[in-house]
Write a structure and sequence with these properties.
Belongs to the aspartate-semialdehyde dehydrogenase family. 31% of the residues lie in helices and 24% in strands. With 345 residues, the chain is α/β, with parallel strands linked by helices. Helix 1 packs across helix 9, helix 4 packs parallel to helix 6 and helix 4 crosses helix 9. The chain is globular. It starts with a strand and ends with a helix. The structure holds 3-amino-D-alanine.
């Protein structure tokens, strides 16, 4: 007699991954409702050997739903998230709509699950609740940085990201493949999604650039890190800077992370801490120059971390450099959201 689950945005890349992860993890749902826009309503989907008809998203879609997994863009979350909560659902929202709302927990289960400890399905007073899934680049970065933060307290973090096409949706992934073929065939590349050539190229993340010169993706990393670490360590002061780049890779992000600590932390101790951390795999073989790559982590649950080394620009073991890769659709979105849902059971 598990929970009834709704998947909002089921036909998108993350929506489809929700179904894969629910199945892979034998999530104990009692029943499942697949919801999408009018355009996709009526589609037949097979999930765990059962046929489902995709239903058009409406307010009454949430009647009787215990957990609603949302990944249909910020406007749909803004419109239907509160409606689902009103009708008694616990919403796990993958959009950025509510991430910075002080009333809404922003959760990476391995990092700050205590932030959502007050929300449970069993014995609920019938009221719903909203929980926000962090941005993919934040999740992937903090999966590696947090175990070290716990040990030596990060005072400053500088991140450079190398973000996959999947972060811009299935159409961007398709365009990358199409452009690559076109370029190899000597044809003019079709540039509809990013208005510039993506294949054999890279460029500053497509998010809007703000008055401070940072783009929205970079500010998500800055603000979400502070909120997530503040919820676990009441530490609002960590200094964060980020540069987010879009690179021609299909579905896994890579990130270079520089950490400055309050207390000394040797690279050997750091490696040991990371080797013992849940959801992480250390790939750090200097002799054979083998370190994390997007292809190694694609469609996998674990985030890979390597290039663990003392930051030689810092004195007294107060700095470390890392290189991290994680699947943007899985741990960067769908898996993290369903791990949140598992905490509700
Ligand atoms: C990106 N983080 O990769 C965004 C998607 N949520 O573009």
């Amino acid at each position: 007699d598990g929970p009834s689950v709704a998947v909002v945005g089921v036909t998108g890349a993350v929506g489809q991954e929700f179904l894969s992860v629910l199945s892979d993890r034998d999530f104990p749902y009692r029943n499942i409702r697949l919801l999408a826009s009018r355009r996709s309503a009526g589609k037949q989907l097979t999930f765990e050997d059962r046929k489902y008809t995709v239903e058009e998203l409406r307010p009454e879609s949430f009647d009787g739903i215990d957990i609603a997994l949302f990944s249909a863009g910020g406007s749909i979350s803004k419109e239907f998230g509160p409606v689902a909560v009103e009708r008694g659902s616990i919403v796990v929202d993958n959009s950025s709509a509510f991430r910075m709302d002080p009333e809404v927990p922003l959760v990476i289960p391995e990092v700050n699950s205590e932030a959502m400890a007050h929300i449970k399905i069993k014995g609920r007073s019938g009221k719903g609740a909203l929980i926000a899934n962090p941005n993919c680049s934040t999740i992937i970065c903090l999966m590696a940085a947090t175990p070290l933060h716990r040990h030596a307290k990060v005072v400053r973090m500088v991140v450079s990201t190398y973000q996959a096409a999947s972060g811009a949706g299935a159409a961007a992934m398709e365009e990358l493949v199409q452009q690559t073929r076109e370029v190899l065939d000597g044809k003019e590349p079709t540039c509809k999604i990013f208005k510039q050539q993506y294949a054999f190229n890279l460029f500053s993340h497509n998010a809007a650039v703000l008055s401070n010169g940072y783009n929205e993706e970079e500010m998500k990393l800055v603000k979400e890190t502070r909120k997530i670490w503040a919820s676990a360590w009441n530490d609002k002061n960590v200094k964060v800077s980020a540069t987010c780049i879009r690179v021609p890779v299909m579905r896994a992000h890579a990130e270079s992370v520089n950490l400055q600590f309050e207390k000394p932390l040797s690279e050997d101790t750091a490696r040991r801490i990371l080797e013992g951390a849940t959801g992480l795999v250390v790939v750090d073989d200097r002799d054979s120059n083998r370190f994390p790559t997007p292809l190694d982590v694609s469609s996998k649950d674990d985030v890979a971390v390597g290039r663990i080394r003392q930051d030689l620009s810092q004195d007294g073991n107060l700095g470390l450099d890392l290189f991290v890769c994680g699947d943007q659709i899985r741990k960067g979105a769908a898996l993290n959201a369903i791990q949140i849902a598992e905490k509700l059971l």
